[in-house]
Specification:
Blueprint: E1 6-15, H1 21-31, E2 35-40, E3 46-52, H2 54-66, E4 72-82, E5 90-93, H3 97-105, H4 110-127, H5 134-160, H6 162-165, H7 169-175, H8 177-180, H9 192-201, H10 209-216, H11 232-253
Parallel strand pairs: 2-5
Antiparallel strand pairs: 1-3, 1-4, 2-3
């Protein structure tokens, strides 16, 4: 039978800031299966809150007395408290939850996809009969930023669903993978309900279809006004803001299951 979780609340004094103390503490606590956070304080100390089994917390406390190689620990003030069960993992503070989620989901192999996509885009741009001007180059840069914001919004929206359903994989599969197929074909190839979804609900049409009309000089045949081709960035800002609002709303309503 496992021990009842408890909480360790500690302050570490000495040369403990600017020496990767928080990073090593987070790594040590995670390896021990603890939850909580570690943060720098204005008086030069490091504050540590950790929850879990007492044996793991005692090992973490031993580490705090020792510190990483570049640190010098003068003293550690530690208190034992009742566990609240409010944490899911061990994190660094201060760090915005959205930034933490974005960094956690960032995968190095995806950089290859980004570079490959840029190479293909540049190759196709060289083959197309487009008169490149400073305005069009700036438009493409803004289009790429808008596209990234739209995809980031979809990621936030799917992640936010986990605050109520406890599982975000299903939402990710529904929102992202089927809808991104709309980016591969002209909107005219789909029925009107699909066009409406790709334009007004999850705006993947603003990733490449509408911007491409301006670059290619081939305006929409579905009745959309020409200014829609220039609306990718404001649409992306609105969509990302709404998704961010959903994520933060879910975060306020979320209660951890504890350890």
């Amino acid at each position: 039978m496992s021990e009842k979780p408890v909480r360790l609340h500690a302050r570490v004094y000495g040369r403990v800031q600017g020496v990767n103390f928080r990073y090593y503490t987070q790594r040590e606590a995670s390896a021990l299966g603890l939850t909580g956070w570690v943060a720098n304080r204005f008086d030069g100390s490091v504050e540590v809150v950790a929850e879990g089994e007492r044996n793991g917390l005692q090992r973490l406390l031993q580490f705090l007395h020792r510190g990483p190689p570049s640190a010098r620990v003068d003293r550690v003030q530690a208190e034992w408290e009742a566990s609240s069960g409010e944490f899911d993992r061990y994190v660094l503070r201060p760090l915005n939850p959205v930034a933490y989620y974005a960094v956690e989901r960032c995968q190095t192999p995806a950089l290859g996809q980004v570079l490959g996509g840029l190479a293909i885009m540049l190759y196709c741009a060289a083959l197309l009969d487009i008169e490149w001007t400073a305005a069009k180059i700036g438009f493409v840069v803004l289009m790429l930023v808008a596209s990234s914001m739209i995809q980031a919004g979809v990621m936030l929206l799917s992640a936010a669903s986990a605050f109520w359903t406890m599982e975000s994989g299903a939402a990710w599969g529904i929102l992202y993978y089927p809808l991104r197929e709309f980016c591969f074909y002209p909107l005219g190839a789909f029925a009107k309900p699909v066009v409406w979804i790709a334009t007004a609900v999850v705006p993947f049409a603003f990733v490449n279809y509408f911007p491409a009309q301006y670059l290619l000089g081939k305006w929409d045949m579905l009745g959309f006004p020409r200014w829609v081709s220039f609306a990718s960035f404001p649409v992306a800002v609105v969509f990302f803001s709404l998704c961010l609002w959903c994520f933060r709303r879910g975060l306020r309503a979320y209660h951890s299951t504890g350890t």
